[in-house]
């Protein structure tokens, strides 16, 4: 599928057909014909585009440098750590204080490290716990509970292999609880929680290696994350992110807020694709031959709101496209109707040559022309 500017929400809906990730919500659009003008849509999408780009670029930078800013005595790319689906290769970048590392074929790193004095003192432990002092003299602690036992109900970790390397042996969590805190002293004075993480995941059984799992796209997962800056302001709040893959469905739903550089993006979604789920040689998710797509997607930047109610029941491959029927985009309470194919028929990099946007007064415009006019490539 041709990639357009991520902030145009229609593209986010389209992405749900091939990957278990998207953005979305609950629009409840009014019945009847289109009531929004082309100008109404332009104002909203251009405003959202600017805000979304600011939040995306700013938050990516902040997340990438999150732990280095606190001068943590380990290396962890938080953007990858929070990313899905390949959790272990992401945590493989987590190097424990003073040389404890998770390699490509290894168990999860475990132990306790107290680095608050400058030297890291190590002791045994079932989880991963590191304490250190930040440049501002605060006492920081990162705790990762690999089996979720701190919640009262533990789920055992499992052993699997990377899709690209069936010979690898990786221990991965199925229930992970994490926390990052900051305090004025070692006793926890003025304790502040900067990050909370709760993730439950189920990986497909491997048909390449007996008694093993494929550490790739999970069969199911649920993620809840709260990430704050040291000043207490919210950087990312994932109230819910879920995906489920069965033999004939792919569903995703979620609710999140991201904030950076004075801009905020809120998003909710609930999307379901029915069809035949394809499995690769080791049993991993290989895509879906879709028969229909339906659901809702909504987002706002605090000034303008966009919400989709979509229905599609025709899909093609090589090239990939989706045909929408009787779908609605609600723009600040007014509606735009749309239907047609997302295919880029003239191969100019703009999808929707035959997807019609219908506005108030009977005015129409093809999606590709709308994108060229108001969201040109840079």
Automatic annotation (TrEMBL):
<keyword id="KW-0732">Signal</keyword>
<feature type="signal peptide">
    <location>
        <begin position="1"/>
        <end position="24"/>
    </location>
</feature>
<protein>
    <recommendedName>
        <fullName>Lipoprotein</fullName>
    </recommendedName>
</protein>
